[in-house]
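USER: For my understanding, would you kindly supply a protein sequence with its structure tokens?

ASSISTANT:
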Amino acid sequence: MGCRTRVLNGKRHAAAFTLVEVMVVVAIIGLILAIAIPNWVKTRTRAQTDICIENLSQLETAKQLWALEFGKAAGETPDEDDLCGPDRYIKSMPICPASGEYSINPIGTNATCSIEGHFLSF
């Protein structure tokens, strides 16, 4: 099966895309990417924030369970070994997907992340 041909001024020419057609297609793809990439970045950032808040919630739950089980009062701070382990409240210390650092904080104060906007509010 050969290339399509067309006759122009009595001569046969192979059918092909013109430079203008190729440039229009490239411009359309560029426009689509210009719209899609910022939305992808925003969605990724929002997903990281949501995961971080869920991790903070798990830390806070583990902290409260630790306080109830051992009769700890507000103001006492568990360490990572008190909360994390195979026979503890969570298997391992969660990791912030945006590379933030978690602070467990004392009972009565929510666990926090070092990334601005990653906070537990209740």
Remarks:
- Strands lie at 5-8, 11-14, 102-103, 112-113.
- The two ends are 69 Å apart (CA to CA).
- The chain has one domain: 19-113.
- The chain is about 45% helix and 10% strand.
